[in-house]
Structure formats: C-alpha cells, structure tokens
C-alpha cells in the first residue's frame, strides 16, 4: 500500500518495507547510483530516493527526468545528508509515465503569468501545490466553524431566476441558439423564463433561516462584470450564513469571530505550507495574521468613516463623499493607517445598498456592515435583513422590483416574520489575505475572467 511522502518524512522510526510514488523533481546520477527527489503532492517536502545501479527498474533511470512519474519500493532509513531526517533506499524503481524535454516546469523560476497559462500543471510547483492544499484545509475549516455553532449547511441553487444584488450583472442560462437569427421569447426557453447563474445564495438562504434557524451556504457564484482587476473573477466561491432572531450586532459578532477563526486556522493547521508564502510572497505575513487573530476589531459608522477620510488630508484616486461607496483604497487606509486594525463599517446610506437591508429609524441608512482587513479591504459584507412586510414592499418599489417575481421571498415576511441577519464572505478574498497572494487568479484552480475560459 502506498505511503504518502508527507507521512514518510514525518516518520518516527525507520521501516524495512515501504512503497512510495510521485513525480520526479530532480535526478542526479553517479556511476553506482542515482538520487531522485520525489514529490507526491501531499507536502511541500521531497523524498530523497537512492537507487543503486542494478536494482529492478534501474535500466529506466535515465528516462526518469523532471516531471516523470515513478513508483518506488524500498527501505526508509535515516538520511546521511542534511535537510531531511529520512530518505529511501530503493530496492526497485518503476517508471510510470515519462516527461519529455519539453516539460514546462523545469527547475527554474516561473512567473505567475506564465503559470496561469499552464494552470493544468502549476499545482506541481511548490508554491501552487501549497496554495491548493491551504485552500482545501481552509474549506474544511469553514464547515467546522459553522458545525461548532450548530448551523445547517444548505445547498442553494446555481441556476436562478432572481437577481439578489439587483445589479443585473448576471450570466444568462439558455438552451436557445443565439446564432439562429430568429428572436425567441423566454417562454420557449428551457425553464420557460429568464434564468441566470446565481450571484448569491442569500435570498434562498433566508428562506431556510426562517425555518431552521441558523444556516449557511458555501458554493460557487458568478458575476458577468467586465473587470480585469486582481480582485475580481467571473466565478468565485461565497460563504453566506443567515441567522434567524439575529440583529446587526449579532451579525458583526459572527463575522468577526469567523475571520479570527480562519486566520488562526491558517496560522496553526497548514502542515508547514504557510512557510513558502512567508518566504517568497509576503515576509510580513505571519506577523499580520497574528495581529489580526489577537486584535479587538474596530467598529465605526459609515458617516464617521467618511468624516475621518475627509479630514485625513490624504489624496485618494477616487473621491470621498457621503453617499458614495468606499473604495478599496479608502478601506485599506482606514485599516492600515488610521485604526491600524481590522475595522467593521456599518449603517450605510440606503441609496447605495440593496432592497433587502433593514431600514434604520433615521430613514436614511440601512443596517449594512462591511468588515475590512489590512492588505485587502472588504472581506465580508452583510446586514440585518428587512423583516417588516410593509417596509420591504416599499423598498422593493423604490428599487423597481416586481412583487410577483419575489412573491416567495415576500411570503417569509407575511407568514411568521422574524428579525434575521447574514453576510457574505468571498472565499478567495480570505485566501488572498491568509497567503499574501495579490491576484485572485492565483488562489482559485482555474480562473474565469473576461476573455478567459480555458481548461
């Protein structure tokens, strides 16, 4: 049975018979034996294999070049060299798959741009292998966080007829041939109405929160936004809890607790993978993460935040004005230079927020909140939801939304309405924060951006 290289390198004792397999990172030859550096993706570390001339399979050693896949039988013994505690003395080697000289991941540095062009191979590099192991462990941590708090995991639809954000930047789902030349109505389409890929599972999540109490969704979402920035992708993953009998304060409490939980997860449970990001991506990464994990988060109203920005004397690229959304540069200045800690901004003007956010008593602001972190800006956005039927209907009218199209949503306010709240966290934004990676294309396996849908 194959042993993972991760487990072999962490072994507490030698072993007389082990089986390992992986891809060759490097090979060095002498007349009597060859050294193979083998990696199987389970860890950043390589297993050094000593293959003596004459053992079964040694006739293929010259073909075991960088990128080739190999299976090895042998003994796990104490290493004679530095850098590793254990190495493998092979009793047999077997070439599984060759890698010709045009294998693009030879032993040299490669730019992120080049590696994005070969996204099918980049997980074999140290950096991206670590990245996607971190992504896997962080995914498990999300589920664990909610399970520990008795939330239920709900699968909300990917295909939907509603636009949660009201921005209209949605991908249409259709079986009609756009090149047929003859205009056809939605009634002739597969679902009999206009259908799209979801931008959020929130509205459906609210339905379940008003039945099960505390729920969350965690799945892919889509935005047809023609943006080529380092922070935007057309397909990304969202974590969206919804809580019945909860207000804005409880919403902010949960968001802050979740950010701290995931940051601690990155610090404590990544099997050493975080070290490569500290060394090659962001030398101050661990210090920043520890600071966030141990900080009391600041809370400030949108009105106060705008006043602080206006008085800062700082020249921003985008204007600061009451009634405008805060931009990333504003958010980062608040967290990195003014408060010098993660900051939650709450109570935004109603004109710049969606219809479902609860109207405050001042009739000017809604119970929205954005959680901002150093280096990224907004990482969580949420609100207390509008539970009052008459106010919700007025909000929908103000936004020009059809009550017929949202009749199912209105029913939750008509039948046993309750105060409730929730938020959305962009999973890739969190991954960028905990690894220091600066481009969303480098924290998702296959990025979908305008003009790019490879693989």
Question: What's the SSE blueprint?
Answer:
Elements: H1 5-9, E1 15-29, E2 33-39, E3 47-52, E4 69-78, E5 86-97, H2 112-117, H3 126-147, E6 152-153, E7 159-160, E8 196-197, H4 202-212, E9 214-222, E10 235-244, H5 248-268, H6 274-280, H7 285-294, E11 298-301, H8 302-310, H9 328-338, E12 343-349, E13 365-373, E14 377-384, H10 389-398, H11 407-414, E15 420-426, H12 427-435
Parallel strand pairs: 3-5, 6-9, 11-12
Antiparallel strand pairs: 1-2, 1-4, 2-3, 4-5, 7-8, 9-10, 10-15, 12-13, 13-14, 14-15
Helix content: 25-40%
SSE ordering: HEEEEEHHEEEHEEHHHEHHEEEHHEH
SS-based class = alpha+beta
- The neighbouring-strand order within the major sheet is 6-9-10-15-14-13-12-11
| Overall morphology | elongated
* Low-confidence regions: none
Rg, alpha carbons:
26 Å
Q: Average the pLDDT over all residues and give the rounded result.
A: 94
